[in-house]
Fold this protein.
Amino acid sequence: MIDFIRKYSLYAAWIIILSGVAGSLYFSLVLHIEPCVLCWYQRIFLYPLAIIIPIGILRKDAGIYIYALPFSIAGAATAFYHYLLYVKIIPEALAPCSASGVSCIQKLPDLFGFFNILQLSLAAFILITVLLFLFKKYENK
């Protein structure tokens, strides 16, 4: 199992990242759902990972997690904050985008009946972070 994690955790993270990039572009370019400020921040943390991870894979860089973890952790924190705003645990007055442009708490379409874009983003960043930590833990063994 350890060999499997060591060998494929970065590939799994990269697949999740590419799915997130493709999904975000689909929602904005095809479905015409305009991203809010927090959505843009999440993209800012996700998109560089689509380049950093494959470079680390190709170079067999055992320290790739050093470069990638700050992006995935910051993305997860932003996605978590955004989700708390969306479900009204954090008051709308603390939303950075309510005054200018698209609201951070706009109603989003549900996927598969119960997942929305914010939940998928949060889950993706958490999975990427876990996979990077697993890679870090088992790479030197």
